[in-house]
Amino acid sequence: MKEGSVVALLGANGAGKTTTLRTISGLIKPTGGSIQFLGKEISHLEAEKIAAIGIAQSPEGRQVFRDLTVEENLKVGAFTVKSRKEVKANFQKVYGYFPVLKERKNQVASTLSGGEQQMLAIGRALMSSPKILLLDEPSLGLAPLIVRDILKIVTEIRDAGTTVIIVEQNAAQTLKIADYAYVLELGVIRTHGPAQELLHDPRLIEAYLGSH
Q: Average pLDDT over the chain, rounded to whole?
């Protein structure tokens, strides 16, 4: 992956997209192959060590802490950050991306809409100052307008210097914001290339990604 890019992992259900993300973040141990980050092998590291070196995941299904407030959820995301000044700056950054979270900072997470919970899950991951942000199905179950807003913010996060890996079934929209993409089928990379090229490959769209 090129630093400062959005890389999309696409494919049907069961293709291995979430497994790939969970393996990168240390929640699943690989049975073969290599995972390298900034030139170092990390596949042997525990998940908390991987989080501490700069890889954060916003999981499928959001998984916010429902009984904590928005602000408390975000504080949990900053547990690896030792500098109070940096934590404060990260709060400002997250509230800049998602102003609605600032408005709702004292609300319990379970009272948020699905879209707001997704924003909170992404914001919580950003609180750790990640070098790489892993996003697992951020559009799942959300209205098209909310999806468009979230994908737009993904490009802003990239433009601010964070590399993003995004797993999505919403292929056409994701290819529009990605720089590069891999298409998985049953754990095998079937094709890969610049996102714009894949977006305009009619055979690929029909075979793997569904129509526009």
A: 92
